[in-house]
Amino acid sequence: MDGVLHFIEFLKTKGVSLNEREINPFYHDELNPVFWTKKKDKERNEKWVFDQRVRRKLLRIAKEFFLDFEDILKEKDIVDIQLTGSLSNYNYTDFSDLDVHIIVNLKGIDDENPQILKRAIDGIRFAWNLRHDISIRGYDVELYVQDEDEPHTASALFSLLNNEWIKKPVYDPPSIDERDVEKKYNGIVSDIEQIHSRLMIDSVLPTNARQLYRRCIKLKVKIFKMRKEGLAKGGEMSIGNLAFKKLRNEGYIEKLINIISKSYDKIYTEK
Questions:
Q1: 3-state SS string over the chain?
Q2: What CA–CA distances, in Å, run from 30 to 36, 49, 78, 157?
């Protein structure tokens, strides 16, 4: 069973009824010209070249972001710094992010408690995102720390560190793959759970509550933009719409709205 049909069957088990139809996702015939330029190499072969000014800026941001991990990770643990996602491919939109992954070697750091280490890394990343809201040329910058042994199914990967393609993009309008939906869903769920766990701390200060409230509002806007853009470009079977449906069916949209209310209350509550 191909990816589309498999995911349709999965959605049926969750009470979501969808028609099986041909998928025609929105695709461009070139990489985003905001960041990419097509040039010829010495052999006169055409290749996509990433904007060097933006590359240097992303590397600088990534290395400053990595300083927050200095208690558990060192610069020598960095294997690569990569650009992935739709802005390294043909399926970008106005709502795409500059997805920057810092690839690290986690072997020997805490082999006995890998889940605790992962939660610590996720928590530091979340805290950094609370303090920063960076965009370059209208596109948000999203940073991640990824274990080099972690499976990664990206259809295109560009090494910012080495200024070269690891996996070149191929123009091939795809059918929906449930792994893409799961990736969007899991990323948003992780943010919601991080916000919720921080909000449940009794000693949270009004200033911190205000930060969490703003993060919630930004996340809510992002979720609904994801769905709106998905419906406009790919219809009901778009990745954005399917991820939204799963978030709604699993109760995470309602949970986020409740968190927004609670964080607002904590801003003004006095004991």
A1: CCHHHHHHHHHHHCCCCCCCCCCCCCCCCCCCCCCEEEEECCCCCEEEEECHHHHHHHHHHHHHHHHHHCCCCCHHHEEEEEEECHHHCCCCCCCCCEEEEEEECCCCCCCCCHHHHHHHHHHHHHHHHHHCCCEECCEEEEEEEEECCCCCCCCCEEECCCCEEEECCCCCCCCCCHHHHHHHHHHHHHHHHHHHHHHCCCCCCHHHHHHHHHHHHHHHHHHHHHHHHHHHHHHHHCHHHHHHHHHHHCCHHHHHHHHHHHHHHHHHCCC
A2: 9, 12, 31, 16
**pTM, entire model:** 0.62
pLDDT over 80 (residue 4)? no
Give the CA count within 13 Å in the CB-facing half-sphere of 88.
23
For residue range 197-221, list pLDDT tens digits in order: 888 886 678 888 888 899 999 999 9
Q: Within 10 A of 256 (CB to CB), how many other CB atoms are there?
A: 21
106 with 117: CB under 8 angstroms? yes
Which of 69, 153, 52, 136 has its CA nearest to residue 98? 136
* pLDDT at residue 7, as a whole number: 52
Mean pLDDT of 234-263: 87
Delimit the domains of the chain by residue range.
Answer: 1-27+176-271, 31-172
Q: Residue 258 and residue 244: Cα distance in Å, rounded?
A: 17
* Integer Cα distance of 102 and 159 in angstroms: 10
